[in-house]
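Chapter summary example.
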Amino acid sequence: MPKRFYKHKTLLDEQVSPRQYFPDLNERFDVKHIKHDLNLASLPDPQVYKFAVAQGRIILTKNVKDFRPLLREDSPGIIGIPEIWSNSRVDTKLTALLTRHGPNYFRGRYRPLAAEEPQSQAA
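The structure predicted for these 123 residues follows.
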């Protein structure tokens, strides 16, 4: 029996392009941008993280070094986006990753979009 589709809720961090630049991701999942959709520009990273946890949203960020220390076991998780990737590549890879996995794969974990980055779990 095929795996059931799960519609992830995601939050694009401020330095990531607006959700309109990710048409496949935006079509399949509940995507919000912290600045362009929610008008929360310049919110400190701990508050962005707290907001994402409260909303049950996976954080999609290029700013991994600031978010990884905030990771908790009960959080929806963090996906690291490589800074040098084009928006179309990010759109394709993120959509594929989120389509393949349910919420337990991301919960309390950092998942890099680029395979060569190390993965980690909340302490």
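To summarize the output: The chain has one domain: 9-118.
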